[in-house]
Each structure stands twice: as C-alpha cells, then as structure tokens.
Amino acid sequence: MNWHPLTSEEQLEVVIEESKSTPVVIFKHSTSCSISSTAKSRLERQWNGAGLDHVKPYYLDLLRYRPVSNEIAEVFEVQHQSPQLLLIQDGMCTYDASHLGISLDSLKKKVTA
Questions:
Q1: Are 86 and 95 in contact (CB under 8 A)?
Q2: What is the pLDDT tens value at each position of the chain, 113 positions in all?
Q3: Could you give the angle at the alpha carbon of 41 between the alpha carbons of 75 and 64, nearest 5°?
Q4: Closest by CA position to 4, among listed 102, 22, 51
Q5: Which of 13, 21, 66, 86 is most buried, with most CB under 10 Å away?
C-alpha cells in the first residue's frame, strides 16, 4: 500500500478533482490512538491483493493537520471521527466508516469503476 500524505486544505481540492477520474480513499489517523493504529495496520495488511490497485489512498495525520480534518468533515458532510476511512468518488463521499467498523470488504462493495 502506497499512502499519499494529505497535508493541506488546498490539496483537498486536488483530491476532489482526482476523485472524478479515479476512486480515492482518505484515512484519518490519530497517531496517539491504539484503535486508529489497529485500523491502519489492518488496512495495510489487507490492501495488497484486494483488487483496489486503481484506488488512490491518502493518509491524514489528524493531530498534525486538524484543520484539514475539519475541512473534510465540512466539505463531505460527515461527522469527524478518528480513525475514519472515506471513499471519495466523483467529488462526493460514498462510504464513511470509523473505528473498528472500517472494513475493506465493505469499501470494495462501494467502489465503482
């Protein structure tokens, strides 16, 4: 799995545009939370071979970039959670899961194209 760091509100606009041609996931991670670390590790272990090579994964360290996390919540109209996985397609959030409810199988069912 090749994470792409998400570090600015301006970059979020690029992600939205990108999602119009390829599905994008954003993983919001709290580096001080054991549940978040577990969810991240599980995603990384399951990603390869899951048939999601066409999905671009972004990683947000929400402790360092909390304003970006707030912007994500506002733009996509989702409640802030940590950890949280969002699937962005055609500029909209089509899947949102948090904590140990984050499931690669559920994500795969929502990915189009």
A1: yes
A2: 899 999 999 999 999 999 999 999 999 999 898 999 999 999 999 998 888 999 999 999 999 999 999 999 999 999 988 899 999 999 999 999 998 889 899 999 999 85
A3: 45
A4: 22
A5: 86
